[in-house]
Amino acid sequence: MQLRLPWLPPDPSKSSKQIAIGDRLVPVSIARHRRARRYVIRLTDDGGLRLTVPRGATIAGGLAFAERQTDWIRREWRRQEERVRPWTHGTEIWFRGERSLIEVEGARMRLGVEMFTLTRRHADLRPIVESHLRALATPELTARCQVLAAETGHELARVSVRNQRSRWGACSSRGVITLNWRLVQMPPSVSDYVIYHELMHLRQPNHSRRFWREVDSVCAGWREAERWLRRFGKELL
User: Taking the model in full, what pTM does it have?
Assistant: First the structure.
């Protein structure tokens, strides 16, 4: 972190602005990035926007770009609200690629074929369900990754299943594969694709054409899996 002396003027590349969406004034934090090639907007945790401005472009142009993305911004707001909404009896969530109802029956709760025991009443079932799914995911995804690694001729140092908030998986140069526990919410074919994707990074630590040829050689349905992730992935994170 850089500390700015109090008598120095603020960095103009990290200033704040506002845009109007309907009757709502939305704060926009602005950051210049010398490697950025285009304007990029992201929703912040408080519902505001972060605008990345590429080198040589104007802040005014970036704000105009943001104002043209109102449909996307409204969709992201709805997704953000959904992510913090409590899960209760009747809530529908993804599980193994299907939309499944959370059903509470006395001291037991059902999600698809899975049954949970509730020790007390909970206003929000999300932490209980997520904890149970993560417990399922850890041995299941670890074993599946080892199977696919052996199938593709790789030896892994370790498989880690974690609560990642912005990626489905990762691969280190030391042969450690990290997977998001939410893969158990996806169709098995999509979960397998994510694993294959990370395994192929052991051969090609990039996203070059050669890398995608490697992916295609082991996972013929990767394009369909990518489409599923683009369409539904944000509902899981």
Answer: 0.76
